[in-house]
Amino acid sequence: MFKIKNMKNLLCLLILTISFSSFSQHKLELKDVDMNKLLKDILYTDAGKDQITILYWIPEIYWEVMAAKDPKNFSAETLSQVKEMLGNKTIFFAVSGKMNTPMRSFEAKEESYLRSNISVTFNGKTYKPIPEAKLSEELKMLNDYMKPIFSQMLGDMGSGMTLFYFDMTDSNGEELLNPYSDSDFKLELASTKNTFHLPLPSLFKDSKCTNDGELFPANYEFCPYHGSKLISQ
User: Fold this and answer.
1) What is the C-alpha separation between 224 and 230, in angstroms, rounded?
2) Rounded Cα gap, residues 81 and 85, in angstroms
3) Nearest-CA neighbor of 124 among 176, 87, 84, 200?
């Protein structure tokens, strides 16, 4: 049986339990999640003088939100098929390259460079993408399918966008990067580094300032203008 050794441990446990319960009570229904806010949470752009790197995490919740918001075009059956195909693999898109301003073009770095230099660090462990040779034909086809879509959306930059699969699961086969958890992770591509802070605030109701009613993302604890503690809606 689990035993609390002292009052300090008991108080810590109670605080953690209350904090988690309070936050979880204000989750948004998936159909109410703002897709633009979600994209902001899972997309990172590093733009220098003429260098641009884009890192894009696609958690499973992304597909679930799509299905909830647009069931006619992304049905429950399609969602089930996508999940089965991915098999709890963690997905990232990445592109990096140089803007050629005079030519109005983007010179993307090769996929081999991206694959060699991309990594994810979670709980002190670093993960590399699954080698392409070990991917199923379905997963390879998904990458080939997405490239022209990105190309149409982003031109030369989209053509250089590459999809990477990571095997990041726990002992039960569940994906480690849970957007509702409070365990951050770091994504790196060469010298570009970004920490994705979890849980994703876009999945929760905004917090409100008691002074003027202005809304802020759920991960804000205090109003940046008044310093007052924000309240959950």
Assistant:
1) 10
2) 6
3) 176
Tokens of 159: 């053509």
List, in sequence order, the alpha helices (H) in 75-211. 76-86, 111-117, 137-154, 156-159
Dump the DSSP string for 43-73.
Answer: EEEEE-SSEEEEEEEE-HHHHHHHHHH-TTT
At 173-217, the pLDDT tens digits run 889 999 999 889 999 999 999 999 999 999 988 777 877 777 777
Give me the count of residues in the chain.
Answer: 233
Q: Which helix (H) or strand (E) holds 124?
A: none
Model confidence over 122-154: pLDDT tens digits?
999 999 999 989 998 888 888 777 777 777 777
Could you give the CA distance from residue 232 to residue 82 in angstroms, rounded to a whole number?
Answer: 34
Q: Please state, in angstroms and as integers, the Cα–Cα distance from residue 176 to each residue in 10, 57, 88, 90, 118, following that order.
A: 27, 13, 9, 9, 18
Rounded CA gap, 213 and 129, in Å?
A: 44
CB of 88 within 8 A of CB of 169?
yes
Q: Specify the residue for token string 């199923």.
A: 136
Reading the block at residue 224, the tokens are 């940046």
Distance, in Å, from the CA atom of 94 to the CA atom of 133, rounded to the nearest integer, reads 19
Domain boundaries, the chain: 27-199, 201-233
Closest C-alpha to 33, from 58, 2, 70: 70
> Distance between CA 151 and CA 158 in Å, rounded?
4
- pTM for the full model? 0.78
Asked if residue 91 lies in contact with residue 165, where contact means CB atoms within 8 angstroms, the answer is yes
Q: Which of 73, 90, 53 is nearest to 175 (CA)?
A: 90
